[in-house]
Design brief:
Layout (H helix, E strand, L loop, with lengths): L9 E5 L26 H12 L5 E5 L9 H11 L3 E3 L9 H10 L3 E5 L5 H8 L4 H14 L4 E7 L7 H10 L4 E6 L14 H15 L5 E5 L3 H12 L37 E4 L4 E3 L9 E2 L5 H7 L1 H6 L7 H5 L10 H8 L14 H5 L1
Parallel strand pairs: 1-2, 1-8, 2-3, 3-4, 4-5, 5-6, 6-7
Antiparallel strand pairs: 8-9, 9-10
Helix pairs in contact: 1-2, 7-8
Keywords: 4Fe-4S, Iron, Iron-sulfur, Metal-binding, S-adenosyl-L-methionine
Cofactor: [4Fe-4S] cluster
GO molecular function, one term: catalytic activity
Length: 366
């Protein structure tokens, strides 16, 4: 099993911050034009070499919009030829042509992920800040199916779409996606705390996700919703599907067909800085894109050295250092709460997950 103290399970590289969309929640606060300080192709090759040497984690190209970099396919080809599994999360813009997707397949990109934040154009386009985004996404997904490339849908749950989640599931199923990646909004970048759903709504959505996962043909995973793992374990304990031990392997949920293509599942719970690392367009290294606390820069220090030795990363990988109820919670090694949300709301990434309603046993006894 991969040792998260040494190597991440997943590396996210923000190739550029350039993007044609104006999403309400944009972590990157993306701009229309590329930053001249972006890592060069040669620097990207060196970074890929360093990533490969960290036990070949998954590599995801994000942005902004990675398609705004003309050399995106050259970088992808270098990484894939090296032996890395690479996927990409482009923005649904006119850049996503059938030819662009065909080129990605020729290079060997394993999967494309598109954001879909509502079952209708009205909801999705409002959230994305651009009219026509929904229709472009639908067209792009059609291209992916025609070219037989697996489709992942990313959805940010917020107050704008929490009331239409049943319709979202119907759409994800209709679109024959292999994975629905459900993000819970973190108020960073353009995201606002007022856009988030309440702690009680988080809990309701987690229970709904668990029941939904038992009947749909696609996989479901969460981002910035680590406490979903606690809900899954609690439900399985109630259903007597586990021994009662708190183990991450009992959290894994699969669709009815067991559709897992080797890209969506970690062997244990990933969290900010713990199995996860984010590299910005200018080489700054963060525990995640949603936790803007810089730990170093790959132009100055090798990625492995930052990931393994940075005090920030080391603290994040030690749940016993968490404060408040997260620090005493019996689920802390499996869950750990969103360190990004803790930082965004309290200013301290070791504080308790502020949108969790669970009271740990240790606190109930006192």
């Amino acid at each position: 099993m991969r040792d998260f103290q040494q190597n991440p399970f997943i590396v996210i590289w923000e190739l550029t911050r350039a993007c044609q969309l104006k999403c309400l929640h944009c972590r990157a606060e993306a701009q229309y034009h590329r930053d001249p300080r972006e890592l060069t192709f040669e620097e990207g090759e060196k970074l890929v070499d360093d990533i490969y040497d960290m036990d070949q984690p998954l590599l995801v190209f994000t942005g902004g919009d990675p398609l705004m970099r003309p050399d995106v396919y050259d970088i992808a080809k270098y990484a894939i030829d090296k032996g890395l599994r690479v996927s990409m999360t482009p923005s649904a813009t006119p850049n996503v042509t059938k030819e662009a997707i065909r080129k990605a397949k020729e290079v060997g990109l394993a999967r494309w992920a598109f954001s879909l934040d509502g079952p209708t154009a009205e909801i999705h386009d409002h959230f994305r800040g651009t009219s026509g985004s929904f229709d472009l996404t639908m067209k792009a997904i059609q291209y992916l199916h025609e070219l037989e490339i697996p489709v992942q849908i990313n959805t940010v749950i917020s107050r704008y779409n929490v009331h239409v989640l049943d319709e979202m599931v119907e759409l994800v199923e209709k679109l024959q996606c292999v994975l629905w990646s459900v993000f819970f909004l973190v108020p960073t970048g353009r995201g606002k705390e007022t856009d988030m759903i309440s702690p009680v709504e988080h809990e309701k959505v987690f229970h709904w996700l668990y029941e939904t996962s038992k009947r749909v043909p696609f996989d479901i995973k969460t981002t910035a919703g680590q406490h979903y793992r606690r809900v899954v374990l609690q439900q399985k304990m109630r259903e007597k599907q586990t021994t009662g031990e708190i183990r991450y392997e009992d959290v894994l949920m699969k669709g009815l067909n067991g559709q897992v293509d080797g890209l969506g599942r970690a062997p244990k719970g990933v969290n900010d800085g713990n199995g996860f690392v984010f590299i910005s367009h200018i080489g700054d290294v963060y525990p995640s894109g949603l936790l803007p606390v810089k730990a170093g820069n790959v132009r100055e220090t090798p990625l492995a050295e930052i990931y393994r030795n940075s005090p920030i990363f080391q603290d994040l990988r030690n749940p016993d250092k968490y404060k408040g109820k997260c620090g005493v919670c019996e689920f802390r090694y499996v869950c750990g709460g969103s360190r990004s949300r803790a930082y965004a709301v309290t200013g301290d990434y070791l504080e308790s997950e502020p949108f969790c309603v669970y009271i740990p046993k240790a606190w109930r006894k006192s």
